[in-house]
Task: structure prediction
Amino acid sequence: MERYLLKETAPFVQFSSVKVTDDFNTFFDIEKTPKQSVEDYCQQLLNRSFAITHSQIPDFICHHCNLVKEPLPWLNKFEKLLTLHEDLFSGNRNQSRLMKFLNCIENRRNKIIDEKERSEIKKPAKKFINAESEDRYFSFHELKKILTTLPGDAERIIMLTREKFEYQQANIEFLNINTLEFDKQCDKEIEQIMTMKKLQEEVAKQFLMISTGKTNSEKIVLNGPQNILTNAFKQMMTSIKPNGKPYIQKRIKDVATFIHENFVDENGNPLSMETLQTYLSPGRNDKDPNSDLQVNF
Result:
């Protein structure tokens, strides 16, 4: 194995070296010697880093992490050792080797941190766990607690949807047959949130109408185009009786106000005052309905 000159050591406090046994990996392992020095360990580790292939780098890092009690400090020191000898990684091939080492170190570090954080979270009782995968568990009981801490319905729906997709894409290893399926519970919760939101809006709308003294239930529902109704009023306002007076003698604005206050469209929405006045204007016959749809007096 080619030897690469060690220029500076990294302050390792844990060595991943092992005794030579039948399990000794000649590609990855570093031989443990009596009173092994930091210099000797760093030199051998550096030599191994150049001896392995690019494809072996992830396994090499994982292997050494498994040989030490605290893999995070070891990773940090190994990263330092490589960056201290960055000049040895010259040429396109070795530059890519260094980048792969650094990327694999970062990925392994992040994975260890994530696993540590998950292990620190106290798991709920087995009866509250819907399912478990290799990486995590799914508990709707715990998810409901988190939902109560979120500021609004939009945030709750987003979290429920994200958790549902996480569950559907996970490789489930344990399924609690005594609970509903996790994704179905998420769907039911989303449906409940949306239903309650719609109901609250309807109730608030009704209270507002009652408080202002205006309720659509007191108004006449117009099941058709507005211009049929306005044309009927316009005819009564413009058609002259034998006595020389029209059937209705009111200003356009007054008639528009009367229709606005007493009629709603088929969806319960108020009619537009501006539109009503336009349709009632004698000069806007273009807004009248076709003759076969008119109510004639």
